[in-house]
Hints:
The complex is a heterotrimer. Chain B contains six helices and two strands, in the order ααααββαα. Chain B is elongated, with a radius of gyration of 22 Å. Chain B has a two-stranded antiparallel sheet. Chain B has helices spanning 19-54, 56-64, 68-93, 97-127, 153-189, 199-223, and strands at 142-143, 146-150. By secondary structure, chain C is of the alpha+beta class. Chain C has two domains: 6-38 and 68-210, Immunoglobulin-like, CATH 2.60.40; 213-308, Orthogonal Bundle (Cytochrome Bc1 Complex, Chain D, domain 2). Chain C has seven helices and twelve strands. Chain C has helices spanning 16-47, 63-92, 198-205, 213-223, 226-229, 261-269, 292-308, and strands spanning 99-106, 109-114, 119-121, 123-127, 131-138, 143-147, 152-156, 162-167, 172-178, 191-196, 248-250, 256-258. The longest helix of chain C has 32 residues, at 16-47. Chain C starts with 15 loop residues before the first helix and ends in a 26-residue tail after the last helix.
Amino acid sequence: MAxxxxxxxxxxxxxxxxxxxxxxxxxxxxxxxALLYLISITFFFFIGGxxxxxxxxxxxxxASDLVQADTxxxxxxxxxxxxxxxxxxxxxxxxxxxxxxxxxxxxxxxAFPRINLLSWYLYIIGGIMMLxxxxxxGVDTGWTFYTPFSTAFTNTKIVEAGLAIFVAGFSxxxxxxxxxxxxxxxxxxxxxxxRLPLFIWAHYxxxxxxxxxxxxxxxxxxxxxxxxxxxxxxxxPKLGGDPxxxxxxxxxxxxxxxxxxxxxxxxxxxxxxxCFSRKRIFGYSFxxxxxxxxxxxxxxxxxxxxxxxxxxxxxxxxxxLLSYSVAVPSAVKVFNWTATLYKxxxxxxxxxxxxxxxxxxxxxxxxxxxFLAALGIDVHVTDTYFVVAHFHYIMVGGALMGYLxxxxxxxxxxxxxxxxxxWARLAALIVFIGFNLTFFPQFILGYLGMPRRYADYSHMxxxxxxxxxxxxxxxxxxxxxxxxMVYFLWSMRYGKPASDNPWNAAGLEWQTQSPPTTxxxxxxxxxxxxxxxxxxxxxxxKEVPQVVG
Amino acid sequence: xxxxxxxxxxxLLHHFATEEQQRNSASFGMWIFLxxxxxxxxxxxxxxxxxxxxxxxxxxxxSKSIDAFxxxxxxxxxxxxxxxxxxxxxxxxxxxxxxxxxxxxxTMLFGLTFLGIKGIEYKDKFVEHHVPGSSFSFDHExxxxxxxxxxxxxxxxIFFALYFVMTGLHALHMIVGLGIFTWLLWMAWxxxxxxxxxTPLEIGGLYWHFxxxxxxxxxxxxxxxxxxx
Amino acid sequence: MFDNFxxxxxxxxxxxxxxxxxxxxxxxxxxxxxxxxxxxxxxxxARYRYRKGVPSEQIEGSTPLELTWTIIxxxxxxxxxxxxxxxxxxxxxxxRDATEVYVVAKQWMWKLEHAEGQREINELHVPVGRDVKLxxxxxxxxxxxxxxxxxxxxxxxxxxxxxAWFRAxxxxxxxxxxxxxCGTQHSGMVGSIVVxxxxxxxxxxxxxxxxxxxxxxxxxxxxxxxxxxxxADTQGRGPNLQGVFGKPVQLEDGRMVTADENYVRxxxxxxGSKVVKGFxxxxxxxxxxxxxxxxxxLVAYVKxxxxxxxxxxxxxxxxTPEGAPGKAQGSQxx
Lengths: 549, 229, 334
């Protein structure tokens, strides 16, 4: 579907304006910072993925025969830490968000460009600390760090890992802060709140969570590190400390964190579905509002991770009830996206395939969340592979699919090149198949009772067949992820040059050149049209919005 | 780069359309940052409140052993320092450079006084073996209002752990604040602040006020548990 | 189902059927919803695919539709919530007169002790059809006692007791797993629940034990000198423990607490924290002087002297020793 006039002459854009390492490392251009992030998070994605591969290889056989239990325990811990803190949480906001938020609202840059750069440096410093930690011994507590194991029993490098995450968390906070101020204060004239793309609403909600939630895990990490280093005793039961207090403080952030991971992806899906159905998203205000609801309700449900932890029955009842309410806005979004397809004019380009994948997999992942919110069932399946399957459906089947879809959708804008469509569709299909093969068997394993974080299941050899399916799926999934890496890189040199708006999409970012200039727009846009005005665009309407000079 | 035909304050950054937008954004950004700080300290307050509710008597005994007079003095010192900050900003708004610099210096002196007094308190705690760790001891301390009933040293240790983490984190924020004010002082000295532009002073002031307010919560919670005249 | 390739866990407890029923209901609901969405997406994607000259139709939305698909799911969710809450309530409410088994978890094994005194490691023998209540604590880190066939799981914490209960309904041997990551040999902390016919269980039981746990507790009670202050009359420096267990207790600071397992345990390890009204805080702490197993035995003993001297409808609030009538009627709680 990619069309449009190809500019014959090389124009100045943000990529070729300055050359040299210094121009990248000291840039304040949000687009360059987005690319810096893109490279770094891709790197950490493959590190996290490498650990995942090792986990799945070990689980091919019941015995702990590939590596020793201690090593395996480090694998799943580091897989979790790297994927959560160094990949999923920054992923869309720091790459697509950084690139697109100013453009979508008609601004020249984010409100605080230097803080944006600082944010990337903090991420890198945290990442280096984490790498160093992993290479010099690693951690084996699980990414959840439960006390007193993490404070008083393990010999691994908790303090260093904790500090790495602390620094990365600061990066996340600054990104969120930047987005909120930008969205409030830097919108172009005429860009009212109800004309904002849903991508912006999603990032706004995400930023609220980043701002309010991350500091709580930061202080929790500080307390754990202090307890280990200084033997304080706050979480030590021998002194009267309460290990459950740690869990409350930890999950108060870590639950909203999962919404940080999924909301931006939902924003991407809204943009893609609108463009490739050539329609405004059905129920725009409900979708926008649902993002905010998810952010708010997301803060009220954390103890559903603790139903069997030793909480009172009444606390459990309250958190279960609230957990059902947070499911409602997500369901509303899925219905609205589906309804958008009705009477649309649907194209099957790669971004749309990823969006379809998202719809299916997020639906399954979200529905299995209902199982977990159900107290009676959660007692049986918590701490088993059922939970593992649930959250991978959301984070990988949901968030990551949305991320890949978004990368494909905006790749022409970011790079000025088209990716190879055939390969992209193939990759989307491989990812979808590989993903389901990897994670669906885990639902069954979970209900059968296979606990999480087990290096060895030789007492339960009957679990092997499902584990083999899962590992087979993981290899297919890996191929599906490698393909885009290869062809995106290939396209930067050999891909067809892209026009300014190859998808004929709505949105201010498409009204300027591909790739954009450093300051995005030649003149400040003045917005006089509603979001997703695909009817005007497709009719070739005279007043098809061009950026007003 | 878009051509600027109109002249503007060199402090106006290129990506902002107007100085007002820049100032509002800076202020908003600082408020959001302070919200994150509230959540950061909030985790500590939460832990404190939980344990205080469980072991009120033990916490009261431990609280009695820290010097409320020094703590109270520090409270007064910080409140005065917030006043000097406000006066510095007023001086900037009314183009009183000398007063502005004086107020900034006074603010920093108050801050240093606070840290000095804190140092004395920490030293006292160290000498009394109230620092959590292997040399911690808190035997035979009576719970206020319950003669003959002695505090559980383990629970007292948790009080002191929270005391040091909370006041320590606060002191760290003070030190950062002093760094910020050093930089503001330098800018003021160089004449960078005018009645039209003194945004760094305003947002630095916001930060300082926040650090002050945290102390105003810490002081009664830590120093004044169950105190009787 | 298939031995090598099971797709459903064994159902071996009274709760398992309830959990499975709820699960199957959810599978059906989710299946229908998934089918609905998939069908809609596939159908719309095909029916409304791009055709040259056929434009899309801009539809803003439909508030009635939004309300419908908000309220109906909310309603379904509430049904699920209530049903699962009922199941959960049953799971968390051990029946009275359940046989008690004390569990001590440590890295990386399960130590179990029946009230009758038998000790087991990594194995628990129980008779079919009997309510069994587990009173569990950990010696080190957090573990979790998980028996998939019973659909039962409860975290086991250091520093306090947590409870769980089950009634086995099918003889057999079932997996016991630790379900809370606890270090190197977390995946090695597995065992079995052996459910036997009552006759076989009796035979197994009579295979020797050290006597009931409460008797062990009575011995420890004497050895540690507890009896010096906790006399069976009003003259002791500590409260008389007869009939105390399970009843409300008024504390010095005015609070009322229930004398349950955690209270007894706390009173031994941290006696100053919940002093009974009318008594001085003179009890020394036994932290570090008693092991978890000894604590379990003492708790069992305190329970046993409550069953022995149990009151019938008498006021059971603790009262002050001074001025109390000298007659120690067995039913009066000091």
